[in-house]
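Section 5.1 Outputs to date
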Amino acid sequence: MLIALQKRKENIAEYILYLWQVEDILRAMQFSPEAIYTTLVDKIEGADEQQKENIFNWYMQIVELLRKEGKEEKGHIEHTLHLVADMHNLHLQLMKLPVGEHYRTTYQPLASALPRLRQLLDDSSLGDINDTELCFRALYATLLYKIKGGADSVVRDTIDVISPVIAELAAIYHKVERGELDLFEE
């Protein structure tokens, strides 16, 4: 919870990927309250009992959302998918507004890689996802691949092409969110 709050303030993309990782960790623990508490909460140094209770409740709220949304086995909670959709809407605005000129330049190498990326991540259960969600799914798959010990050229290529775009999109998202950037200002 503490990490998630910090990531939400600083980098929306890292926040989304962190929550996806939390979902998978909770699934691996089979949503067991005891396992969640002993593994994720009890070992937090410097947290008092009230803080630990709040953190535990936060994990259990995610468990409840996963169950309520029927995503016990796979998938991501609607909260993160809405954030990805918001980022995609911002992407669409940046692709046509003057303020997005630098973003479009950053995006150009990724645009030509998207068909290959879509083919690599071909999963009929994903349906017709937008390009921004595709990038997040590729980054998350890359993260999982690296955790499992893989670090081949496909992984590096994916990160090299997607990361700058998502990083810039996340930075702009936060500027817009904090009122530091008006997309429609000339």
